[in-house]
Amino acid sequence: MSAASDTRAATETDDGVRVAHRAHWGWWVLTAFVLLFAAGIVQMLFTNPNLEWGVVVSWFFSQSIVFGLLRTLELTVLAMVFGILLGMLTAVMRLSPIKILSTVAWFYTWFFRGTPLLVQLIFWYNLAALFPTIDIGIPFVGPTVWAGNANQIVTPFMAALLGLALNEGAYMSEIVRGGILSVDQGQHEAAVALGMRTSRALRRVILPQAMRVIVPPTGNQVIGMLKSTSLVSVTSMPELLYSAQLVYNRTFQTIPLLIVASIWYLIVTSVLSVIQYYIERHYAKGGRRALPPTPWEKLKRTLARLAPPQTTTASRRA
């Protein structure tokens, strides 16, 4: 082995190809800096008494915190389901040749992406100040078909769901539209030539190919939605963060309760990241020479490289 080969660090790509990179002294400096920084964080976590890890453990599985966590998950799931459905509908409307549909879809996207989510949540929560009663009927000419009290209809939960879902739908519409536009126009033309209607071609040909582009940002949106639910605390909605706030407003243990909420957010986002990884891996079929390895496969490869080489009987005799 030459001296040059000893200064190279080998890395392995997802396709199993090992690529050698020339080592540099800056790598060692950067590694030492990162290790020292990590050691300082670990020391702070174990030696700072203000973190009060005993309080964190005692409140981690408390009824109020778990109830807030479940409400956060409920809001995340419902807001993403409605947001994805609304985003797909809006994206198709944006691409429609019918001018009125594309104009309405553009205005919806422009408005809900152009105003902050916090402002939208506060607006929906105070909707009764603008419309004390919600009436359904034909404007100017027809009688009221149905009327209801706005405070009873738009509850804190409904206000949070409306704000999150409508805002998410605007972002998802651009994600879905970008995914549809990423598919070659010839795919649509070939589907139409086979006798498919536009709706069926979109469902059977275009969207399956667009999923490789749609899934990664959608996964990021789900994780972002989980954290955005913390904003609904302004509507007195007892989600995870607001539940922690209620506790530390009573016990004055602010930092430990914020740590409890942060750890739960990290746990859920980690689970969502793993799910996102496997969904992306599924839709990567046909678009790559080889599928990216799973974490278990990466671990087996690492262990195989670290294991000592086994000598055969012939080599021993030699």
UniProtKB/TrEMBL annotation:
Location in the cell: Cell membrane
Protein keywords: Amino-acid transport, Cell membrane, Membrane, Transmembrane, Transmembrane helix, Transport
Membrane topology according to the record: Multi-pass membrane protein
Gene3D superfamilies registered for this protein in UniProt: MetI-like (1.10.3720.10)
Membrane-spanning residues: 25-46, 76-93, 105-125, 255-279
Domain ABC transmembrane type-1: 69-276
NCBIfam families: HEQRo_perm_3TM
Protein family (similarity comment): Belongs to the binding-protein-dependent transport system permease family.
Protein's UniProt name: Amino acid ABC transporter permease
Protein species of origin: Sinomonas terricola
